[in-house]
Amino acid sequence: MRQLKNDIEIEKPLLNLEALKADFPVLQQVINDKPLVYFDNAATTQKPRVVIERMRTYYEMENSNVHRGVHTLSQRATDAYENARETVRAFINAAHSKEIIFVRGATEAINLVARSFGQKYIKKGDEILISAMEHHSNIVPWQMVCEEKGARLRVIPMNRKGELNMDAFTRLLGTNTRLVAVTHVSNALGTVNPVSEIIEMAHRKGIPVLVDGAQSVPHMPVDVRELGCDFFVFSGHKMYGPTGIGVLYGRAELLEEMPPYQGGGDMIRSVTFDKTTFNGLPYRFEAGTPNIAGAVGLAAAVEYLNSIGMDQVAAHEKALLDYATNRLLQLEGLTIFGNAKRKAGVISFLFNDVHPHDIGTILDQEGVAIRTGHHCAQPVMDFFSISATARASFGLYNTTQEIDRFIDALKKIKEVFG
Q1: Tell me, what's the pLDDT at 5?
Q2: 183 falls in which pLDDT band (50, 70, 90)?
Q3: What is the DSSP string of 335-383?
Q4: If we measure between CA atoms, which residue out of 198, 212, 226, 202 comes closest to residue 136?
Q5: Burial level of 311, CB count in 10 A (0-12/13-18/19+)?
Q6: Hey, how many other C-beta atoms are within 10 angstroms of the C-beta on 264?
Q7: Residue 164: closest CA among 140, 213, 129, 136
Q8: 14: pLDDT confidence band, cut at 50, 70 and 90?
Q9: DSSP secondary structure string, 101-123?
């Protein structure tokens, strides 16, 4: 069933959006006397009440340290923490819960692999292969490893649509390549990269692959075993969970060979002044008291997404992307950066000669929250010979009515700047 709106054909909503929006307390407020429209989901998503309440319950009824206590509260906390690990394992279909490492976020997960895998396997003359559209978090850690080890960082180029040059990728895969680290979905362009093809091509040459899934896990079904990746990282706060918690998935046979990332409590089996024996997976990579509340909050977010269905989320956001793109292209002077055939719900744009920060400021006055800047992807900006863009990014609670408000606010920018 279709309906016509502003001369654009759109699918009727796939989700009960009124009920969904009611789940998110922050979305009930007004900004500058207007109902909030939140289009900054690629930076962080809002939190449903079930996540907030689950973390509150932990602090009120279960708060204790995990793994080492015999008293009731410690057992409750340990059960909640390990159940969260299992919830995450099932969500991405990892083979074992020991392959799920809780970290602070995708950034720490990449740094963990860079330091630990890099320490063991990267040597002088080796090459690490990344793409031209990576977030700084998937560039800087590898630069640091390369500088330390005397290795070389190589980059898969992209075209003006924001699509990777797969022929160039084939040529770059060489006998010195030790790791491929690539984003699943570009945070700056919305491009959905062909990671299954990348993984298959790399594996033919025995090269492991890390996938940055920070922008994919909240928006589409992800099965790490189906993808075949060796490492997969994501952040809780981008998938309706709390900040300060994230996940590194790694194949057990790789993780078991990697040295610990940090030293401290819980990552040891025994310690003397002469020698330390390290714990098994996943604990050898979780030194110190973990973010227990963050882990149970993340599990609640996963359960919330499961209750909706990731296929439904993906279809809804695809409809939003198509609708917004069609409406934006009707605005004279607006340029969209990132026009890949496969895209997620991210639109980076410039509007006439108006600076992105001015665009963001005026939209905020209309109650519309977007992101402006280089989006921690400065090489992407350099590729397009620009310094910044305005970026609207969609989540499961967004609506076509909000897109209409967004468009109306953009028209006011044109009135102000001419």
Answers
A1: 42
A2: very high
A3: EEE---SSB-SEEEEEETTB-HHHHHHHHHHTTEE-EEE-TT-HHHHHH
A4: 212
A5: exposed
A6: 11
A7: 129
A8: low
A9: EEESSHHHHHHHHHHHHHHHH--
**Distances 379 to 152, 183, 346 between C-alpha atoms, Å:** 17, 14, 18
Does the pLDDT at position 12 exceed 60?
no
Handedness of CA 343, 344, 346, 347 (dihedral sign): positive
pLDDT for 13: 54
Catalytically annotated residue among 166, 201, 254, 376: 376
Per-residue pLDDT for 179 more than 60? yes
pLDDT, tens digit, 9 for 90 and up, residues 54-65: 999 999 999 999
Topology, domain 51-307: Aspartate Aminotransferase; domain 2 (3.40.640)
Q: Where are the chain's structural domains?
A: 2-47+309-417, 51-307
CATH superfamily of 2-47+309-417: Aspartate Aminotransferase, domain 1 (3.90.1150.10)
What is residue 269's predicted lDDT score, i.e. its pLDDT?
A: 83
Taking the C-alpha atoms of residue 20 and residue 274, their distance in angstroms, rounded to an integer, is 57
Report the alpha-carbon distance of residue 190 to residue 163 in Å, rounded.
10
Q: Specify whether the CB–CB gap between 227 and 211 falls below 8 A.
A: yes
Does the annotation mark 229 as catalytic?
no
Position 317: which residue type?
E
Cα distance between residue 94 and residue 90, in whole Å:
6
Q: What is the pTM of this model?
A: 0.94
- State which amino acid sits at residue 268: I
What is the amino acid identity at position 134? E
